UniProtKB/TrEMBL annotation:
PROSITE patterns: MFS. It comes from the Bacteria. Signal peptide: none annotated. The keyword Protein transport does not apply. This is Metabolite-proton symporter. One of its GO terms (molecular function) is transmembrane transporter activity. It comes from Granulicella arctica. SUPFAM superfamilies: MFS general substrate transporter. The lineage of its organism: Bacteria, Pseudomonadati, Acidobacteriota, Terriglobia, Terriglobales. The chain crosses the membrane at residues 21-46, 58-79, 91-114, 120-143, 155-178, 190-209, 243-268, 280-302, 309-329, 335-357, 369-389, 401-419.
Length: 432
């Protein structure tokens, strides 16, 4: 009789699972993107003053990359606890770390107030953001797919991915409104701080939702079978090296594409191509709509097979790299089309990505393995992407930025060849 009363206390409803997995990543990516936007528009002027604006921008973009270097540390740290004590508690800690770091950026004094200490503290806060995000993404995806029916894992797994375009829309929309409502003097005096401070409200919302859910049934079953390993990261490196390398390569083109379409495009568009800050943010927000719309399309297709979808989209990304420069320099219409096309491809590759990478690893090391693959791909594909792209464009021309994207797609293609089709795999199977 007791079993009839217990399930409601321990079973998460689909609505709870999907909202909890999406709201956390929305908050995380909002925090991450407001830094990316400020790294182009604000920090070069307030934290890295120099006689040459290009040098200030490059220095600011370098701090942007610090978070990606911190991500693997966060993946190892939070992955350890996520695989040892559970997904729920670890997700709460990861979100708190990200939120505190973001709020701290909003209260930092600038270079003219405290000198060299200002950029150092900024870099430290950025490092904290990376630690938090290193533990957030993998856990959010596992929260979704480990609660999903076997034939709906790609659909459930797309909800954390939807947090990316939603977070970007909130971030870009906030900066756009601030640009419209405030003068340049007001924006640089205090306006840029408001999104960082407001993120505290979103973090509290995310924490509240995360605290209402229970542990995933897949992890609970693994815990009952006593499958936990002592040091998950060592097990990943020793026994799942092929899956880890393949996972990194599979994620590579996604990272390069996204950060070229967002950080680099905003920087290049508002400097070399002379778009106003507000106008280019509008172009990006329009493109993000295509990002959001194509995520569910690719997730639906991936229920029939993960690899065919990812291989096809990766080929299209390689071709897109060859037309990126001609479109970007073809006036406003070309820039709008480039942004819409690039971010539509981003949605198509990003929708199934979390599911694909997570399914490569067994339950006892899934949090660590998937998070580490995603984070390492971030170092290789995103941390220096805006910096490399800016250097290529200034040194050899904008077309080489497109070649850079095409090369990353070729590497991702090789990664997809290395993996097996995971559509019919059973997440509850014991590891070999």
């Amino acid at each position: 009789m007791m079993t009839d009363k217990m399930p409601p206390k321990h079973i998460n409803t689909p609505r709870q699972v999907l909202f909890a997995s999406m709201v956390g990543t929305t908050v995380e990516f909002f925090d991450f993107y407001i830094y990316a936007t400020a790294a182009v528009l604000v920090f070069p002027r307030l934290f890295f003053p120099a006689s040459d604006p290009a040098s200030s921008t490059l220095a600011s973009l370098a701090t942007f990359g610090i978070a990606f270097l911190a991500r693997p540390i966060g993946s190892a740290l939070f992955g350890h606890f996520g695989d040892r004590i559970g997904r729920k508690k670890t997700l709460v800690l990861a979100l708190s770390t990200m939120g505190l770091s973001t709020f701290a950026i909003g209260i930092l004094p600038g270079y003219h107030a405290i000198g060299i200490t200002a950029p150092l503290l900024l870099a430290l806060c950025r490092f904290g953001q990376g630690i938090g995000l290193g533990g957030e993404w993998g856990g959010a995806v596992l929260l979704a797919i480990e609660n999903a029916p076997p034939n709906k894992r790609a659909l459930y797994g797309m909800f954390p991915q939807l947090g990316a375009p939603i977070g970007f829309l909130l971030s870009g929309g906030t900066f756009l409104l601030l640009s419209r409502w405030l003068t340049d003097k007001q924006f640089f005096a205090f306006g840029w701080r408001l999104p960082f401070l407001a993120s505290a409200v979103l973090v509290l919302l995310g924490l509240y939702v995360r605290l209402t859910i229970t542990e995933t049934p897949v992890f609970q079953a693994s815990l009952q079978r006593a499958e936990q390993v002592g040091v998950p990261i060592l097990t990943v490196l020793r026994r799942h090296t092929r899956a880890l390398v393949a996972g990194i390569l599979v994620c590579l083109a996604t990272f390069v594409l996204f950060y070229l379409m967002t950080v680099f495009a905003l920087s290049w568009g508002t400097t070399a191509l002379h778009y106003s800050r507000g106008n280019f943010l509008l172009i990006q927000l329009f493109g993000i709509l295509f990002f959001a719309l194509t995520i569910p399309i690719s997730a639906l297709l991936a229920e029939r097979g993960r690899r065919p979808v990812m291989l096809g989209v990766t080929g299209l990304i390689a071709l897109f790299g060859l037309v990126l420069a001609p479109l970007f320099t073809a006036g406003t219409t070309g820039a709008v089309f480039m942004m819409a096309l690039g971010l539509a491809l981003m949605g198509l590759t990003y929708g199934p990505l979390g599911t694909v990478v997570s399914e490569l690893f067994p339950t006892p090391v899934r949090y660590t393995g998937s998070s580490l693959a995603f984070s390492m791909a971030g170092i290789l594909g995103a941390s220096l992407a805006p910096y490399i792209a800016t250097w290529l464009a200034k040194t050899y021309g904008l077309q080489y930025v497109g070649y850079y994207l095409t090369a990353s797609a070729i590497l991702t293609f090789f990664g997809l060849i290395l993996i097996r089709e995971t559509k019919d795999s059973d997440l509850t199977d014991s590891p070999n």
